[in-house]
Design brief:
The chain is mostly helical. Helix content is about 75%, strand content about 0%. The relative contact order is 0.14.
């Protein structure tokens, strides 16, 4: 009975953390808009304008020629997941500087469980934003198959992986002012040196060998490819193992290195919100 009570208590704590993040998000309408602006610009302006110019030839997982906007949708979903996962590190740094994480970690629960709760909350928000983007993409005429269980599982794993990377990033950001530069240093190389916007064979064909090699080992590439292949019911190869492995390593390192005392009280000293 004691074991059941402990499990019930841990699950209630996770639910409380998730609801807190959802409540915060519900009061930040601009956050949803900002998360969707970038991918929708790519889709509605760039991809739509070059739909018949930059089509993708017959290559796995596609059985026929596909329009460019259809090809990049999984990459843009990855963009939404990536940006929200990285933005979660901003919230973690803010909570740490305000002492909220220090207070949370006084709960009679393991540190890794509380950080896992924050990770799950981040993933839930990421998936909600990604779902809104997919609905908008369908409304503006993008041709997409109905996502099955495998595609949803791939999106969930991708959201958790990017959340874990954001959690790990928050460990190494000492002050809130350093966030933007560090986040951009992580986000843009991960996104542009990947298969989000162009297939690997085009990178190799263009002679950009070093970019092609980096894209092959980029976790973002594997997250996007897993979603892309799963969407069409094809075998994603090693992509799930890379995504799940990156998730596990990033989360373990984040739990090992997380210090709730780092930066505590600095925001108030600098005249930030009380």
């Amino acid at each position: 009975m004691q074991g059941k009570d402990a499990v019930s208590h841990a699950l209630r704590a996770m639910a409380a953390v998730i609801w807190r993040e959802l409540f915060k998000f519900s009061r930040q309408y601009g956050r949803l808009v900002s998360a969707l602006v970038r991918p929708l610009l790519w889709l509605a302006v760039f991809a739509a304008g070059f739909r018949n110019v930059f089509g993708v030839a017959i290559v796995e997982p596609y059985d026929t020629y596909v329009a460019y906007d259809t090809y990049i949708v999984p990459g843009l979903v990855g963009m939404v997941l990536l940006f929200n996962g990285m933005q979660s590190s901003l919230a973690m740094v803010y909570d740490r500087e305000m002492g909220l994480m220090r207070l949370l970690l006084t709960a009679p629960l393991p540190r890794w469980w509380l950080l896992a709760s924050k990770l799950v909350a981040t993933a839930v928000l990421s998936l909600a934003q990604a779902a809104v983007f997919v609905v908008v993409a369908l409304l503006i005429g993008t041709d997409l198959p109905a996502p099955g269980v495998h595609a949803i599982a791939a999106a969930v794993a991708g959201a958790l992986m990017f959340g874990a990377l954001g959690l790990l990033l928050s460990v190494h950001i000492k002050q809130l002012e350093n966030f933007a530069g560090t986040m951009n240093f992580v986000i843009f190389p991960m996104y542009f040196i990947s298969t989000a916007l162009y297939p690997l064979w085009k990178l190799e064909e263009s002679g950009a060998t070093w970019v092609w090699r980096i894209a092959q080992v980029n976790p973002f590439t594997h997250a996007v490819e897993w979603m892309r292949f799963a969407l069409y019911g094809k075998d994603p190869g090693i992509a799930p193992w890379v995504v799940l492995g990156t998730l596990a390593v990033a989360f373990v390192l984040a739990c090992w290195g997380y210090d709730p005392q780092r930066g505590f009280g600095q925001l108030a000293k600098r005249g930030g919100p009380a």
